[in-house]
Fold this protein.
Amino acid sequence: MSNEQATLIESWRVRNAAATTLALTEEQMRRAVRDASIEELVTLIETFAPARSAGPEWTRTFEPLVERLWTWRDDETIATLAEVFRSRGMPWMAVTNALAPERGVLTRTTLRQPASARLPAFTLV
């Protein structure tokens, strides 16, 4: 076996390990989000304070969380979260907008879940 072949095979093994790790982590996160109280979810969302983390990094990490919140929690929970952040005013408007019912409808209707999948195929990882 050539060195290039060994590298290719090893790369495939690493890819498979990473995919397995991501699937296990998603499942762990799903359980944690489903079991979390409103206060715990607020604390998690607060780590995305737009004033502290504006720019592409905020979007790159916050939008996948919002997808998962809309997928894993019910409308009542999301509405409660939206109200918490709405009451904080303009600095939190991006969070409030992400928790708006229209966003939930769009998220829930665009996520794919093949019959064989354990988790939806999130658009944002």
About this structure: The chain is about 70% helix and 0% strand. Residues 73 and 121 are 17 Å apart (CA to CA). The radius of gyration is 18 Å. The longest helix spans residues 3-35.
